[in-house]
Amino acid sequence: MTGKSIPTLSKEANTLNSIAYQALQKNFGENFTEIFDNDLAEKTVVIIPSLTLDNEILRSIQGLVYYEERMLCMLMLLRMPRTHVIYISSIPVDNTIIDYYLHLLPGITGYHAAQRLTMLSCYDASFKPLTNKILERPRLIKRIKEHIKNPHLSHMACFNVTEYEKQLAVELGIPIYGCDPALVYLGTKSGCRKIFKQLDILLAPGFEDLQNEKDIAHAFAKLKRQNPSLKKAVVKMNDGFSGEGNALFYYLDMDTGADNLEEAILKAMPQQLKIVAPNVSYERFIEKFCSMGGIAEEFLDGSIKESPSVQCRINPLGETEIISTHDQMLGGESGQVFLGATFPAHHEYNNTIAAISKKVADEMSRQGVIGRFSIDFLSVKEGDVWKHYAIEINLRKGGTTHPFIMLQFLTVGEYNWQQGVYIMPNEQSRCYFASDNVVNEKYKGLTPHDLIDIAMCNHILYDGASQCGVMFHMIGALSRYGKLGMLCIGNTIEEATAYYKKAIDVLDKECGA
User: Fold this and answer.
1) DSSP label at 392?
2) Does residue 413 sit within a domain?
3) Residue 120 burial by Cβ neighbours in a 10 Å radius (0-12, 13-18, 19+)
């Protein structure tokens, strides 16, 4: 029987829960080498692709439930012949999509992989985060536990880790390869700014730990007085993501010398604060800001401006690694919504931002963080020199995570961050263009089977022989929302982009767009 709500834990139960969780994490560290360095270890990875983030902000994302399919890239773990994968989703994933992924496994038959894959579903398409849905279903938790082989060699892989994922880990009796939610402040907008300041890393002028509307107005006034030519400032909720939770303030013709500048800004904010998330009123934005807290900082302008990102990983032994660099594509009216990315980042600065990120990763390791996270920058070119402003630390997987995981599983290469190139065993390099936001009304009605058929007949699918081509993700969103994601792999970024354009041309032609 499905429960009505997640059980509320008492203070004593929470303490016991934390003790049990820490014991699981300690065991994970002790067994890490055996788990990850032995491809023949009999282990289980439980994939929880839950976006356990602010529910109201999540509602603005079209086709949200299908974002869980981004972590289907983790099915590539089945290339290890003794590894079992349990994948839980809000709604069932179409078998055509599963077959599509298993077909790509190098050196493993789809049949062999399928015997080691367990797909489970909550059959619940509501906006509630997946982890919450699982915790409401004790019978589902029991089924998951029954499929876990060797719990001491198993772990959970999550999109992000909150107290809910921590509770689920304890109930399943396995650790999480991710950041302890007790350290969540380090990944907030305010926490990031403090770390960047501590490490003497360049960041936009601004103020953190703001709590309310008056704090925002006071910060905007100080920024304007510090820089009278400033035209825009940005306010960000501590726990916003992908630009959602941000808003832009336009100063227009405000007099910096006026004694009542702060009052004037406070009065103007309802009209001049442009909120990134659609359908969110000013009043609701401020209410959410007051509950989360946040920051205000200068909106950085420049004629040549890029938004690179660096992925890092810290293993349970505390060892830090730079995984990849990307140039992010941002869009929307505010230019702050994540649309896609190219890999690697621009050759003029990819090793520079990687070196800065290594400093941050080493500090995060000292703070006790483990797992994947990313560091976002805003890079402005002044003459021949790039200035890199650190923007935020995302203590979770993100839009640049699954494309790189897919590339690495498909080609078994490594990113050399000092050289800024991705090298495969045959000494060739690869680049890609990836997007989660390929959207067209004309694509509505296309089933997963239709998409795969169109791609095969037009020779755009990823080809294992050339190790180039197009990989699709979020395929389940296509029929209802006309939306999907693409990973386009090529020898160069130009070739990868050409694959993307060809794929769009093919879909447009097939759908009469």
Assistant:
1) E
2) no
3) middle
